[in-house]
Input
Amino acid sequence: MGTIINIIEKATDGKSFKSHKYCTDDIALSNIEYDKSEEVVWKNYGETVQHKVSIKLQQRANFLRDKRSIFTYFLDGSRHTYKVDDISYNKDVFPIFAGQIGIGCCKRIHKEISPEQFTRKLIIVLPDIAYRDGWGADNFFADILNKININNKMKNYFGVQFDGILTYKRDKDDKLEKKGIAVIQDYMVDLEKVAVSDLVAKGNLNQDNFLIKDGSLEYKVVSDNNRNLKNRRVANYYKYVIGVSKSFDPTKCLIKGGGTNSDIIANLKPFERTPVYMYQSRIAGNVYFAIWYLRIRDSKYTHNIFDGIVKVEKLVTGEEEQEKGLDSEMIDHISSHLINERNPVCYGDDKRWANHIYPVYLTESYIKSKYLSNDLFLQLF
Output
């Protein structure tokens, strides 16, 4: 149909090439990008008991199995990204991207899970050269967005609206496709932060009602300090939030005393956790995280030795915690409840089944059910 591209082409004095449109989701972007030459050093123990070996938790998990879980809320952010065209400015050609973003939170009461909040955003990402005056860019792109959304074909045939037009910077240090997708990823992360702050503002999070956030909590620093974890007020929002990652690369993490932690993790027996280590993140603005690994499934039922292991993160929010580490009793309590979240499983539906926390899987499935199909979304352009 080409309606959106035609509007952008005319408004920005560009030339569209009507390039092939496709979904870029096969290009994986990590929430954290480590420099290839950099090793992450886990400087200190991150808990009050300095364990030398893995900690067995099956007995404690069994004791807690029929008791109320401390986990009440489950948050996931998801995005689909697309390359929708190429456009030229000043004889240079630049890609145009678009994204569907979904942020969902589910709540569990009396063993029943229901949606608590959901946000869907549709955005377009242009090269920053699309606006060359240097002033009034916000108004300029708002005007283009309005023209797109009031178009009769958009309103009457598709019944959707776009929520924003963002830009990526042009430089020679990175591939433009990677930079455009990163803009969509950063936008999704900001929406995750908003979702957490909304739960805190409502008084929903406390010691009996934790939130599991799917993936890492190590958000990179942004220009607005009111959205950074190094801001004490923002950090306090995460007092009752843990991040659980289904995938990780432990090979570059150096533990205290030398060596990597990959062997420690691989040798975890079912329902054991590693000692907790303290990690100071430069990416997040030199804030501290307590990080440990937990095996929730026996490796004999999985494809490789790291299947069935999740990485768990908790933001260190106080000076005393930073000095002494998190209370080991609390770590065991959190970990034991996590073990009990592993069942039932989603065999066949997801190759990551062994690493799923099931309520998070349900939340993720709920978000994805709200997406427009890829074919329908690409027809918008």
Summary: The longest strand covers residues 71-89. The radius of gyration is 22 Å. The chain has a mean pLDDT of 88. Residues 14 and 89 are 5 Å apart (CA to CA).
